[in-house]
Design a protein that fits this description.
This protein has 300 residues and is mainly α. It contains 15 helices and no strands. It has one domain.
C-alpha cells in the first residue's frame, strides 16, 4: 500500500475509533434517539438534493437505512447512554464481521474457513469476559444492545450484497433519509416533548461538535475514504486495518473521557482483538464473505 493510502486508512480508522468517545460527549447533553435521528437527518440533507439516487430498488435503500440507523446506531447510542464504555462499544461492534460471515454461509452458501471458526470461538470467550466484568443489570443490558447493533450491522451488509449497489456513497446518503422518521417520531410518541426540550436546552459547543463530527467526519469522509481504498487494494490488504478501530476507540476513550478499563475487560479486549485477527487472516484472495465483512467497517 502506498504511503498516502496507508495514511488515509489510518486516518479513517482513527476517526471511527475516536467517534465513540466523541459520541459519548454528545450523549451527555442529548437524548440517544434524538441524537441519532438528527445525525442521520443531517447526513441526508441537503446532499440528497445534489446526489443522484442510487440505481437499485428503493426498498433496499429504505431497509438499509432503517437497519443501519435504528438497529445499529440507535442501539449503540442507547447502549452507551445505559452505561457501556465507548471503548468497549468500539470493540464489540467489530463482531459484525463474524455475523456477516455466518450470514454469508447461511444465505449465500459461502464456505467458512477453519480460521474463521477458531476466531469466532476466541471472540466469544472474550465477549463472555466483557459480560462478566459488568457491574449492574443496566450495563449488561447495554452490552447486549451493542451486540444487537453488531447483528444489525451484519444484516445491513447482507442488504448491500443483495442490492448489488455500486454507488456506495450515494446509497448511504439516501438511506440516511429513513432513520430520523421512526427515531424522532417514536421518541415523541413514547416520551413526549421532554427529550427534545432537554436536548435543546442542553445543547452546547461540545454537543454541537460531537454532532458535526459524527455527520461529516465519521459518516461522510470516512465512508468515502474506506471505500476508495477497497476499490484500489485487495480486501486482504485493507481488512486487517479495521482492527485499529477499537484500539483507537479504547485509547481515545481513556484520554478524552477518562474511561477506566477493568483488568478482566483488559484481558478480554486482547482476546477479542486476537480472535478478530485470526478470523480475518487468510492467504491468497479473500472470499466474498470476507469482502462483505470487511466492508462493514466502512459504516461506523
Amino acid at each position: 500500500m502506498e504511503r498516502k493510502h496507508l495514511t488515509l486508512a489510518l486516518l479513517v480508522t482513527f476517526v471511527w475509533g475516536i467517534n465513540f468517545p466523541i459520541t459519548k460527549l454528545g450523549l451527555n447533553s442529548m437524548d440517544p434517539f434524538v441524537l441519532t435521528g438528527v445525525r442521520f437527518a443531517l447526513a441526508a440533507i441537503p446532499l440528497v438534493f445534489f446526489i443522484r439516487r442510487p440505481s437499485v430498488h428503493f426498498g433496499y435503500v429504505a431497509a438499509y437505512g432503517l437497519i443501519f440507523g435504528v438497529g445499529m446506531w440507535g442501539a449503540i447510542n442507547y447502549g452507551i447512554a445505559a452505561g457501556v464504555a465507548p471503548g468497549i462499544a468500539s470493540l464489540i461492534i467489530q463482531l459484525s464481521a463474524f455475523f456477516t460471515m455466518f450470514w454469508g454461509a447461511l444465505l449465500f452458501r459461502e464456505t467458512l474457513r477453519p480460521a474463521q471458526w477458531i476466531g469466532a470461538v476466541v471472540v466469544l470467550l472474550g465477549l463472555a469476559g466483557i459480560f462478566l466484568a459488568q457491574k449492574g443489570a443496566h450495563e449488561i443490558f447495554g452490552i447486549a444492545l451493542i451486540v444487537l447493533s453488531a447483528v444489525s450491522w451484519s444484516v445491513g451488509n447482507v442488504i448491500i450484497k443483495k442490492s448489488g449497489v455500486k454507488e456506495i456513497f450515494s446509497f448511504m446518503v439516501w438511506a440516511s433519509l429513513f432513520p430520523p422518521i421512526p427515531l424522532l417520531t417514536g421518541t415523541w410518541l413514547v416520551e413526549g416533548a421532554h427529550p427534545f426540550v432537554v436536548t435543546w436546552k442542553n445543547m452546547n459547543g461540545i454537543a454541537l461538535f460531537s454532532l458535526v463530527f459524527q455527520v461529516y467526519l465519521a459518516t461522510h469522509f470516512s465512508y468515502w475514504g474506506w471505500n476508495s481504498l477497497m476499490k484500489l487494494y485487495p480486501v486482504s490488504t485493507v481488512a486487517p486495518l479495521s482492527l485499529m478501530i477499537p484500539v483507537f476507540g479504547i485509547v481515545t476513550s481513556i484520554l478524552l473521557i477518562g474511561e477506566q478499563v477493568h483488568p478482566i475487560e483488559l484481558v478480554s479486549i486482547v482476546v477479542i482483538i486476537a480472535g478478530l485477527a485470526i478470523g480475518m487472516y487468510r492467504r491468497g484472495k479473500a472470499p466474498v464473505s470476507a469482502r462483505t465483512a470487511s466492508s462493514s467497517a466502512s459504516k461506523a
